[in-house]
Amino acid sequence: EQFVESGGGLVQPGGSLRLSCAASGFFLENYAITWFRQAPGKEREEVSCISSSDRSMYYAESVKGRFIISRDNVGNTVHLQMNRLKPEDTAVYYCAARDGESWRGLYEYWGQGTQVTVSS
């Protein structure tokens, strides 16, 4: 069972990146997903969440209107589309999967983390 992240990198302010987490050995359609991020010297922050049914979503105020969380059950992958990126979005981003509808509680699977750097 694996949960593998991809899509990070260096981007200029105002640019876009799409992060992905591909699951193998388990089916993401049964899991609530959260994207976290952690910047140097700061606590881990919950960026965006989606319930297993896709009926509920959450976005941190700092990313609302700029980031979009989505799920591709056929590809068994989740995405975080990040638009109008700002330097303060610079962090290591992690995806996490929790069995069931709600994203509250402990997570069974974590991605390895991917670095996002927003800089000119």
Provide the fold topology.
Blueprint: E1 2-6, E2 9-11, E3 17-24, E4 31-38, E5 45-50, E6 57-59, E7 67-72, E8 77-82, E9 91-99, E10 109-110, E11 114-118
Parallel strand pairs: 2-11
Antiparallel strand pairs: 1-3, 3-8, 4-5, 4-9, 5-6, 7-8, 9-10, 9-11
| Tally of DSSP β-strands | 11
Largest sheet: 7 strands, mixed
Order of SSEs:
EEEEEEEEEEE
Output the number of helix runs. 0
**Into which percent range does the helicity of residues fall?**
under 10%
Q: What is the radius of gyration computed over CA atoms, rounded to a whole number of angstroms?
A: 13 Å
Description:
The strands form 2 sheets. Strands 2, 4, 5, 6, 9, 10 and 11 form a 7-stranded mixed sheet that branches. Strands 1-3-8-7 form a 4-stranded antiparallel sheet, with no helix packed on it. A hairpin with a 6-residue loop joins β5 (45-50) and β6. The protein has no helices and 11 strands. It has strands at residues 2-6, 9-11, 17-24, 31-38, 45-50, 57-59, 67-72, 77-82, 91-99, 109-110, 114-118. The protein is an all-beta fold.
Keywords:
mainly beta, 51% strand, globular, four-stranded antiparallel sheet, seven-stranded mixed sheet, 120 residues, 0% helix
How do you describe this structure in short?
Helices cover 0% and strands 51% of the residues.
